[in-house]
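pasting for ref. prot 1 ->
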Amino acid sequence: AIVYIYSTIPGGLLVMLRLFAFIWFTYAIYVTLRKYRQSRGFYKKFWFFVGTWILTIPILVFVNSMIDVWFRAKIVNLISILSTFVCQLVLIAMYNPKYCCGTNGSFPFHYNPLTEQIDEKC
């Protein structure tokens, strides 16, 4: 009897997909940081919070192997919903220039990349 979605083959594929998404996301942030050094603070925070959200399900699957069967669904749903909510709140704060990322100059949309290319040519 299947009690837990992640104990099935499709559930395992979902976990593998999340792990692949984290690796791809980390690589994309790395490439972006190399190209746009001015926004390093923003992208490091972005990587930390979104990366944590992406890894929530694989971590939960590992932890839930140690939890009793009748609590698994409640814990998985609670933590996945809470992590999504917290990640959304952080992204709202990060994309608002009035909050933490806008005042320290790491907000990525405050400059035009074309001016950076023009400055490099001069």
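and prot 2 ->
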Amino acid sequence: MQVNVEDKSVPTDVRNLAQKDYLSYVTSLDKIYNKEKASYTLGEPLKFTNSTKRVMVIIIFLF
């Protein structure tokens, strides 16, 4: 299983988080939906700003 995070517009902390913490999540999805191992690529992040001006980044994986 490989998670590709090649998009340079994704902040470094988010790329590291995706590679570290979301690998088990995409592995589980892979086992549910596929019989073969696959590779996942981090898609364009969605950025939201809340009322305190903190930016939240939603990670989208492309299958």
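The longest strand covers residues 39-42.
Residues 2-62 form one domain.
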